[in-house]
Amino acid sequence: MWASLRHALRLETANSRILELAQTDLLTNLANRRAFVKRLTMAFAVSLRGAPPFAVLYLDIDNFKVVNDTLGHAMGDLLLKEVVNRLRNAVRPEDLVARSGGDEFATSCRR
């Protein structure tokens, strides 16, 4: 019986980790596009029922390819992480910041 319980707990832990990986950008540790769209869809549905409105901010880093091509991908990764730090510092803790693409970020903020 204990072996079955242990197996069930390990399986639950593994499933939770798989779900987390499916919704998280590994480089930045932000929500990925899939997770952002899911949360945005839920926020929109809730706002239709009278919840306070929300805003969406979309950010694209111009000429980011030049950084990767001239300074290397390691430097590009450092730049992306710095952008993430600045975005997180610019919004409230409850606001969602996500990486929606290579050099693209999205934020959802409630009023």
Concise account of the structure shown:
The chain is an alpha+beta fold.
Strand order of the biggest β-sheet: 1-3-4-2
| Fraction of residues in H or I helices | 55-70%
Gross morphology: flat
CATH-defined topology: Alpha-Beta Plaits
Largest beta-sheet characterization: 4 strands, mixed
What is the number of helical segments per DSSP (H or I, 4+ residues)? Answer: 4
If you average the pLDDT, what whole number results? Answer: 91
Structural class: alpha+beta
CA(first)-CA(last) distance: 51 Å
Name of the CATH homologous superfamily: Reverse transcriptase/Diguanylate cyclase domain
How many domain modules? 1
How would you explain this protein's 3D organization?
The protein is of the alpha+beta class and 111 residues long. It has one domain (2-110): Alpha-Beta Plaits (2-Layer Sandwich). The protein is built from four helices and four strands, in the order H-E-H-E-H-H-E-E. It has helices at residues 2-22, 33-48, 64-71, 73-90; strands spanning 31-32, 54-60, 96-101, 104-110. A four-stranded mixed sheet has the order 1-3-4-2, with helices on both faces. A hairpin with a 2-residue loop joins strand 3 and strand 4. The mean pLDDT is 91.
Secondary structure blueprint with pairings:
Layout: H1 2-22, E1 31-32, H2 33-48, E2 54-60, H3 64-71, H4 73-90, E3 96-101, E4 104-110
Parallel strand pairs: 1-3
Antiparallel strand pairs: 2-4, 3-4
Helix pairs in contact: 3-4
